[in-house]
Amino acid sequence: MVLLKPHELNFIRQQLSHLIQTVYFVGDYRTLRLTEEAVEFKIGEVISHLSPEIRNLFQNITRFRGQGEVNTFIQSLSPYVEKFPKLSSNQVRKLFSKVKKLSMPDFEKMEDLALEYLGWRDIATHSLYLVYHEKGELYGLDCRYKPISGNKSVFCCLCNQRRIGNQIGLVTTKRNNDLVSGNYMCLDSQLCNQDITDIRKLREFMGV
Ligand SMILES: [Zn+2]
């Protein structure tokens, strides 16, 4: 069965939350109707490749009038969302074979999570390890990060959310011996994953 990708679920949640915001803050009926139509159209595009069984869950998708209802709906979709594949420590070691003292992710904590990528840090060496999967293949990327100072806030290049202070760092990596630098990225990958609605930048960064 074709399932929803985590970033597609995030997109759906974002669209429905936008609808709720319009219900609350825009009194004008016409604007609300237009928003409903736009939301219905955008979500319709995202779910068009899914089976009728899943698409049926989206009937009257613009009926929600409170964020609580949206949250319950999003929660109800979780059986239909792709989970990140289970990794063994051997697989992780193989992906980062050049790293001498590799720290391992918390396998238990990440079990059964719907993630677009898996990321974990080694605070001692300021390393950030990223794993992405596509079509049964795993991609690993070994990065360094520099935390940003103070209350400066910047946008994460993967999730496009504004983050402040210790939530975000300047990330560099090497690809084919070339230095890839200057990417601000969330240091908490679970937080980042919740807000990714488009995976183009992630794929590009992972070299897919
Ligand atoms: Zn992010």
From TrEMBL:
Name under which the protein is recorded: Elongation factor G-binding protein
Q: Which residues form the Elongation factor G-binding protein C-terminal treble-clef zinc-finger domain?
A: 98-194
Pfam families in the cross-refs: EF-G-binding_N (PF07299), FBP_C (PF16571)
Cross-referenced InterPro entries: EF-G-binding_C, EF-G-binding_N, EF-G_N_sf
Gene3D superfamilies reported for this sequence: 1.20.1280.250
- Lineage, top-rank taxon, reads Bacteria
Where does the Elongation factor G-binding protein N-terminal domain lie? 4-85
